[in-house]
Write a structure and sequence with these properties.
The complex is a heterodimer of chains A (213) and B (207).
Chain A (H helix, E strand, L loop, with lengths): L3 H23 L6 H8 L3 H7 L3 H25 L4 H14 L8 H10 L3 H28 L8 H20 L7 H16 L7 H9 L1
Helix pairs in contact in A: 1-2, 1-4, 2-3, 4-6, 4-7, 5-7, 5-9, 6-7, 7-8, 8-9
Chain B lengths: L6 H16 L6 H8 L3 H7 L3 H15 L2 H4 L1 H4 L5 H12 L4 H19 L4 H24 L8 H21 L6 H15 L14
Helix pairs in contact in B: 1-2, 1-4, 1-8, 2-3, 4-8, 7-9, 7-11, 9-10, 10-11
Classes of the chains: A mainly alpha (213), B mainly alpha (207).
Chain lengths: 213, 207
């Protein structure tokens, strides 16, 4: 047995990780707190001690998967030189991801809950703004360096691109015929190229994935 | 009250309202039956499962609540293809109460279909209908020389994705993206793709 303080420290993240898995697999409605407790190796009362409801667990779970996504994304961004490469990278990471938790299922869950729960709604807005800010910052960087056309409003572009990625991401998640992750990348790059007055090309990642299918 | 409305239709109308307010998971069959003035057994008779009810309710909502879309044939402005496209964009965003309801069902369907593969053909069918609607109008506009040459399927796909992306934010109530802004932005993106000079498909309507 580990000393108790250490366990306490670990317990919350463990519960959130378990909640993310279970909520992704089953959905909010069909998930019982007991399912999450079982996955996390703890008890329902312990979970309810930390989180008052399934909605709170959903918020934390999405925040957790999103932070994970950002850690990976920012890691990759740091290795890219120039705004064009950064934007291509962001579009590819968002569209291709590692599958599983990074698809749109948990976002859909949020959209459905956000209409009824103000807390879920504000969490959604916060996460959405974070992504839009990242996009807008890349655009500003590209405009400053002359890579992107200057007349585009970076914030307006950010809404359009994240809207397009959401719309296509839903279709990819639902396995719509003709809408693969690779096509999503191409669509987003075409849109960004047209709006920003540049030629964005997919990286080897997209090319390889497309060929292996 | 018209006596000609069938029980099945009353059930669907009640289901649309219930799903929109409670979500497909929260819907209670007894409540729908009460609202439709039928017995719960009859609801089960018409719709064996929740998924069947959701699928049919969506179809019903698409056809009935989206009056703007369905009567489109006659009611769309016949002036220009651009004006028609503009009206189509407006009819696809959550502008009216019935369109908002239709949207809520649409989002519920996404979530449900993500986990229930049997529901995916329902989503596929709805996407295909919307896609054909847009692609046909764009093709006609290209043929009449009003729009620049383009791949109508491609433009239609992008239009629908943008509508979904903006629509969801408008529906949830992102104050930064009110309905007018969503309409303007989708319209502007389409105008650029179709090689129209202005900032919008058509001149902004008087508020």
């Amino acid at each position: 047995m580990s000393p108790r303080p250490k366990v306490e420290h670990l317990r919350k993240p463990q519960i959130i990780a378990a909640a993310a898995d279970v909520l992704y697999e089953r959905g909010l409605f069909d998930t019982r707190i007991g399912d999450i407790a079982e996955r996390a190796g703890t008890s329902s009362p312990t979970i309810l001690y930390y989180f008052e409801s399934k909605d709170r667990l959903l918020e934390e779970a999405v925040d957790y998967t999103d932070r994970d996504f950002y850690a990976r994304l920012l890691d990759g961004q740091a290795q890219r030189e120039g705004a064009a490469d950064k934007l291509v990278h962001l579009i590819e990471e968002t569209s291709l991801g590692p599958g599983g938790l990074s698809d749109w299922t948990l976002w859909m869950e949020m959209w459905v809950r956000a209409r009824r729960d103000p807390a879920v709604r504000s969490t959604y807005f916060r996460l959405d703004r974070r992504q839009r800010k990242l996009i807008a910052d890349i655009v500003r960087e590209g405009q400053a360096s002359g890579d992107f056309a200057g007349e585009v409003d970076p914030d307006e572009f950010a809404i359009a691109l994240s809207g397009l990625m959401d719309g296509l991401g839903v279709q990819v998640t639902l396995g719509q015929p003709d809408v693969t992750a690779e096509r999503m990348v191409k669509r987003c790059l075409a849109m960004a190229s047209a709006e920003l007055g540049c030629e964005l090309q997919p990286s080897d990642v997209t090319v390889k994935r497309g060929a292996s299918r | 009250m018209s006596g000609r409305v069938s029980a099945r239709e009353r059930i669907l109308a009640a289901a649309v309202g219930q799903i929109a307010s409670e979500g497909i998971d929260g819907v209670r069959i007894a409540r729908i039956a009460m609202e439709a003035r039928v017995s719960p057994a009859l609801v089960h008779y018409h719709f064996a499962t929740r998924d069947a009810l959701l699928a049919e309710a969506l179809d019903y909502s698409y056809v009935h609540a989206g009056q703007a879309r369905i009567t489109s044939g006659e009611e769309l402005p016949d002036t220009t293809h651009a004006a028609r496209l503009q009206s189509m964009v407006e009819a696809c965003l959550p502008a009216t109460e019935s369109l908002r309801q239709d949207w809520v069902l649409w989002v519920e369907l996404w979530l449900r279909a993500a986990r229930t593969p049997e529901l995916r053909p329902v989503a596929e069918e709805l996407y295909a209908r919307l896609h054909a609607w847009f692609a046909d109008e764009i093709t006609a506009g290209v043929n009449d020389g009003e729009f620049a040459r383009c791949d109508p399927d491609d433009v239609a796909d992008r239009a629908l994705a943008l509508i979904d992306g903006y629509g969801i934010r408008t529906l949830i109530g992102d104050r930064g993206i009110p309905l007018e802004r969503a309409q303007r932005s989708v319209s502007a993106a389409l105008a650029r793709e179709l090689g129209l000079g202005g900032e919008q498909l058509t001149a902004t309507r008087a508020a």
